[in-house]
Amino acid sequence: MPPEKLETYYGLPADVTYCKRCVISNQRPASTPEFRNTSARKIGTMSIDAEGVCDACRFADIKEQIDWEAREQELVKLLDQHRSNDGSYDCLVPGSGGKDSALQSHILKYKYGMHPLTCTWPPILYTDIGWKNYRDWCEVGGFDNITFKQNGRVMKLLTRLSIENLLHPFQSFILGQKNLAPKIAAKFGIPLVFYGENEAEYGNPIADNNSSLRDKSYHTSDNLDEIYLGGVSIKEIMEKYDVPLSDLTAYLPADPTEYDKAEIEIHYLGYYLKWTPQEAYYYAVEHTGFEANPVRTEGTYSKYNSLDDRIDGFHYYTTYVKFGIGRATYDASQEIRNKHITREEAVALVRRFDGEFPEKYFHEVMDYVGITPERFMQLCDEFRSPHLWRKDGDEWRLRHPVWEDETMKRAAA
Prior knowledge:
Layout: H1 55-65, H2 68-82, E1 91-94, H3 99-110, E2 116-120, H4 128-139, E3 144-147, H5 152-166, H6 171-188, E4 192-195, H7 216-219, E5 228-229, E6 232-233, H8 234-240, H9 256-262, E7 265-268, H10 269-272, H11 277-288, H12 312-323, H13 327-337, H14 343-353, H15 362-369, H16 373-382, E8 389-392, E9 395-398, H17 402-412
Parallel strand pairs: 1-2, 1-4, 2-3, 4-7
Antiparallel strand pairs: 5-6, 8-9
């Protein structure tokens, strides 16, 4: 008999395939403009090639072939063209004071003699360590900072809608964070915006921004009718929830006319300098007083990634629910590509930690967004794609976990 054909959600591939090098699967969503989510909730996914290797691992191969000295000279040339002579801001670094933004801002200022302004879209709910690292970034590192404190009522509403309609607790944060920097740059006449890692590090489309990348898909939109927030149209949010458009503009892309007029260039520092997350962590500790969590983060084995927001854990837990890919999978795959652990070690870590429920802040976060714990768990069940999950008694289990994939390969060998 042919195997049962199970329903798939979100346009995910029906067959689950794992990369032969890391532990990521072809269920990983590729980066798409968050504000264009529609009720269909379909996404693109990362591809795995005919040799069984994922896009992100292929990019890791490319990194090994790059002449990094030549790339740094490209950076120096770019900075020389824009460095201010009067001390005015000549580049903008968005971030929270985590390891990546700490490295970006510090190296631009103290190694290359730039005059960065930093800007922050604050977390939905700061953690204690996140708040400390943010303050030390400014005070120990020595940076001017603009923090945009968002309308709390609207932030709660959009976060709740994102959970209820998309099971995406971080959508409102991602929108605000991505859209803030170009607006601040345009407001202050700052020509350069620097993000950290090239997004291709994780399997997103490669952004080769060696001259003047203007990734307008993320930063501008000329048609508000296409924009959804929390899976709901702007028109519906305004009418149903009595929210004026002025209260939503913080989450919307920059006006394309203003963006073009300001001639802003968006760059990834990771294009010019070889980017290794562990090295970024050590650098931030030394230069800005960055601290990791004293204990491992729920859902993974690491202590220094994504520490700022109490909702962080729910973002990764819901990616586990929707795509079968949790926080330990992301961390372990990245560490394989940087040759810090083996695939065998990664499989063991994923088996032990992936999908661990973020209990620590659960009730606090649910109270904040106005969702009962029972309703959240119900939503998680509703968003599980049948081709990924099966119910075993009262417990949900992945149909195709990476450790079974690995076991089958060893048995076949």
